[in-house]
Specification:
single chain, alpha/beta, Rossmann fold, two-stranded antiparallel ribbon, 6 helices, 8 strands, about 30% helix
C-alpha cells in the first residue's frame, strides 16, 4: 500500500478539455444536519469497467482539489488494478486521516436517437455502512439521448462521505450528465469543473 503523500503526488495530471463537452447536474442532495469541517485530505474512488479511464477521472478530481490546496489520493494510485480490497481500503482511510471520501459511479451509453431526451435518477441502494456501500452498489441510471446524431453521454453519480464518523456518513450526492463526449480527458475535466463548483457552493469543500 502506498503512503498518502506519495499517492497524492502521483495522482495529478494535466488534461485537455474538449470545448464541446458539457456537464449538468440533474439532481443534488446535501445532508442538512452536516456541519462542514476543514478539508485537508480526500480519497477518490471512481467505478467504471476500464482501469485506464478510471485513472483519467480520478486524476482530474485530484488535480482540481490540489488547485484548491487540498491533498488527495486516488484508488488507482494507491491500490493495484481490479477490485478494491475492503479491509485495505478502510485501513488506508483511517490511517491517513482522510476527511472526505468521494465515490463516482459511471455509465456510458452511445446511441442514435431522435426523441426528446430524458434522464431519470434512481438511487441504486440505501447508503448505509459508510462509503463502501456506494462502491458495491448496482447501476441506478437510465438514459435516452436527445440528439439527432450519434452522441456519447456519460452519466455519473457522485457521493461524498465524511470520514470523521465510523462508518463514514453520506453528506452529499449528485446525479449528472456529460454530453457530447469526445474523449475521456474532456469528459473528466467537464465533470470535475461542475462538481467542484457545486461542492464549494454546498459548503462541502471548506478550508
Amino acid at each position: 500500500m502506498r503512503s498518502f503523500l506519495r499517492a497524492a503526488a502521483a495522482a495529478v495530471a494535466l488534461l485537455a478539455l474538449s470545448s464541446c463537452t458539457g456537464t449538468r447536474m440533474v439532481q443534488t442532495w446535501r445532508d442538512p444536519k452536516y456541519q462542514a469541517q476543514p478539508v485537508k485530505r480526500v480519497f477518490i474512488v471512481c467505478i467504471m469497467p476500464s482501469d485506464r479511464t478510471r485513472v483519467v477521472f480520478e486524476n482530474a478530481l485530484a488535480q482540481a482539489l490540489l488547485d484548491r490546496g487540498i491533498l488527495s489520493a486516488t484508488a488507482t494510485g494507491v491500490f493495484p488494478p481490479g477490485e478494491l480490497d475492503r479491509a485495505k481500503a478502510d485501513q488506508f482511510v483511517k490511517e491517513n486521516k482522510i476527511d472526505l471520501v468521494i465515490v463516482q459511479r459511471f455509465k456510458k451509453k452511445t446511441e442514435l436517437a431522435y426523441l426528446p431526451g430524458t434522464f431519470d435518477y434512481v438511487p441504486a441502494a440505501p447508503y448505509y455502512g459508510g462509503w463502501w456501500s456506494a462502491y458495491g452498489a448496482g447501476d441506478g441510471f437510465y438514459y435516452s439521448s436527445a440528439y439527432l446524431e450519434e452522441d456519447t453521454t456519460v452519466t455519473a453519480e457522485t457521493t461524498v462521505y465524511s470520514a470523521h464518523t465510523d462508518p463514514e456518513t453520506l453528506v452529499w450526492s449528485a446525479a449528472s450528465t456529460t454530453q457530447n463526449v469526445q474523449s475521456a480527458p474532456g469528459a473528466a475535466q467537464s465533470l470535475t469543473k461542475t462538481l467542484m463548483a457545486d461542492l464549494e457552493k454546498a459548503g462541502i469543500l471548506v478550508k
